[in-house]
Amino acid sequence: MAPFEALYGKCCRSPVCWGEVGEQRMLGPELVQTTNAAIQKIRARMLTAQSRQKSYADVRRKDLEFEVGDMVFLKVAPMKGVLRFAKKGKLSPRFVGPFEILERIGPVAYRLALPPSFAAVHDVFHISMLRKYVADPTHVVDFEPLQISENLSYEEQPVEVLAREVKKLRSREIPLVKILWQNHGVEEATWEKEEDMRAQYPELFED
């Protein structure tokens, strides 16, 4: 059924099929009945399409599962101690570990063997927070020097000022500094307000 037919209750008239379609008027109960029938037909076709798409996706979806004794990485979120001025260059999540799975808690949660430095963190995690143990030095952080909080975040520390620039607004100028962050490469350096960085990390600007 074409969108025009569903909306107006009749086929779209064109020069090709002008004589075949003809003029048709529906009033009162007949119009309501025809409209309801069209709605039911559209809903049925939508459900069929959704069911087909779900079946297609389910065939290719592999449920993530781990076994007791497996080694996994735990996802943590890097946070910075200053408010961002620019949104670009957001620090991406990192994975710490690996940690051993001690117990499966229900279908989607696992208990991990955590070190003493994780004393403030609950040891049961949803499967979405875990990753299979695969060596990848660009996404793994040594957790020993990190202070992991209860919400699995840690504060990143600036390492070096890479560049400076001034952002010009309508009525003022804002000095910015490009900061290299610990545990991140140069490609993830971010622009921050120099005023905020000097207040939060004065040692970064000492000669």
TrEMBL record:
InterPro entries noted in UniProt: Chromo-like_dom_sf, SH3_Tf2-1
Domain Tf2-1-like SH3-like: 69-134
Domain of life: Eukaryota
The protein's name in its UniProt record: Pol protein
